[in-house]
Amino acid sequence: MTSASVSSAAKLDAALGFALPARDARGRLVRLGPVLDDILSAHDYPAPIARILSEALTLTALLGATLKEAGGQLTLQAQTEAGIVDLLVCDYRGGELRGYVRFDPERLAAEAAVPSLEALFGKAYLAITFDQIVPGDDKIERYQGIVPLEGGSLAEAAQHYFSQSEQIPSLVRLAVDDTGHVAGGILLQHLPEGEEGRDRLHTRLDHPEWDHVRALAETIRANELTDRELGLETLLWRLFHEEEEVRLLATVALEKGCRCTYEHVRGVLARFAPEERREMADDEGFISVDCEFCSRVFPVKLDDLDADQV
Predict the structure, then answer these.
(1) Beta bridge pairs of residue 55
(2) Confidence band of 308 (pLDDT split at 50, 70, 90)
(3) Other residues' Cβ atoms within 10 Å of the Cβ of residue 113
(4) Across residues 196-218, what is the average pLDDT?
(5) 132-147 pLDDT, tens per residue?
(6) SS3 category, 95
(7) How far apart, in whole angstroms, are the C-alpha atoms of residue 64 and residue 73?
(8) What whole-number distance in Å separates Cα of residue 29 and Cα of residue 10?
(9) 132: CB partners within 8 A, 6+ apart
C-alpha cells in the first residue's frame, strides 16, 4: 500500500484485512456504527452492558472476518458464575453479526461505580468456537478454545486466549466512543509458522519482528478506532506507512443478521412430535417462540403445524 492507494471509503460497518509480509504479521481493523445501533436497539441495555456487548461484537467481527470459506461461523461466548452477567454470546456468519447479554438488573444497579470486568462476569470462561466449512466436501470442522476470562478488559482476555489456546502472539485493542454508537478494534497476529493450519507449537512469543510491529500497533488511540470520519485504510497507513509493504486484503461489509424468521421457527417446531407440540401450546392453540437476539416473539398456530404433516 502506498499513500496514493489510501482511500477513505471504509469507515463504518466494515472489517479490513491486511498483511505485513516482511514482518510475518496479519491483522484486521473493524469499525461498527449503524450495525451496532441495530443490534443494541433490540434491548434497552444499561450503559455498562451495552458497552461490553459492543466490545464483544467488535471482537467477534475481528475474529469472524478471518474465516475463509463461505458458510463458516464464529461464536464467542462468556460462560459465567456468580457475576452480574449470566450469559454473553455473539456470533458471525458471512458478514452478519448478532449478540445478546443476559444480566441481573438489580445487582447492576447496586454497583456504586462502573463495574469492572471481574464484577460483571465473576468467575468466567471465554469460549471461542470456529465452525469452518471443509473445502470440497461441505463438512463442518469445529475448533473450540476455552480459557479463563481474565484481565482488566475483554481485549486483554482475548489476548490471553490467543496466548494460551492458540499459541499465537497477538495484540487486541477494542474501543467504544462516548456516545456508545460507534465501536472499533484491531487484531494483529504474528504467524511465521503454520499460517495455513493450527500447528504453531514452535512460534516464538518474543520474535524481534513481532516486537517491532506490536510496538507500532500499540500507538493506536481509542479515538482513532472510533472516529467515524477516519477511513480504515487511512488508519492503517498511519500505523504502518514506514513498512516495506502493507498488503490490503479483503474488506468485509458487516450487517445485523439475526437468523430467526417465522419459516425457520416453524421448521424447528415441525421436528417435534405432535404430543410435544401440544404441551408447548397455550390455551389459544399457539406456540410462542422468543428470539433473545432480536427480542421478537414468533407465534405459530398449532393447527397449521399439524396440517403440514397430514
Answers:
(1) none
(2) low
(3) 7
(4) 68
(5) 877 767 677 888 889 8
(6) coil
(7) 7
(8) 10
(9) 67, 68, 69, 72, 140, 141, 142, 143
Confidence band of 7 (pLDDT split at 50, 70, 90): very low
**Looking at the predicted structure, is the pLDDT value of residue 109 above 70?**
yes
Question: Is 13:35 a contact under the CB 8 Å cutoff?
Answer: yes
Q: Which residues, other chains included, contact 238 with Cβ-Cβ below 8 Å and sequence gap of 6+? A: 224
Quote the DSSP letter at residue 21.
G
pLDDT of residue 206: 55
What are the cell numbers at 246? 502493507
**Domains of the chain by range and CATH?**
10-256 (3.55.30.10), 262-308 (3.90.1280.10)
CB count within 10 Å of CB 199 equals 10
CA distance 303 to 239: 61
| Structure confidence at residue 306 (pLDDT) | 66
109 SS3 class: helix
Q: How far is the C-alpha of 236 from the C-alpha of 162, rounded, in Å?
A: 22
User: At which residue does the C-alpha cell 500507538 appear?
Assistant: 219
CB 221 within 8 A of CB 186: no
pLDDT at 307: 66
Distance CA 305, CA 213 (A): 58
Which residues, listed in sequence order, are joined to residue 247 by a DSSP beta bridge?
19
Rounded distance between C-alpha atoms, residue 86 and residue 102, angstroms: 5
